[in-house]
Amino acid sequence: MIHLKKSSKESNEKLISRFQKKVQGSRIITQSKERMYYKKPIKKGGIRKRAIMREHYRAVREKQKYL
User: Fold this and answer.
1) pTM
2) Domains of the chain: which residue ranges?
């Protein structure tokens, strides 16, 4: 739960924008959208494939860093 207190010199628009930034930073909206639909559990093979691809892309990015 996000709680904000309005300071004496703060406008309502500023408070709303600050609240929106807090909500986006806490990823509440993305988590609620993910929970809207059933997501099939990932099998061990899928986890392994993702890990291999992640390492591959890291290596590619590391090579491009020094070009």
Assistant:
1) 0.52
2) 12-65
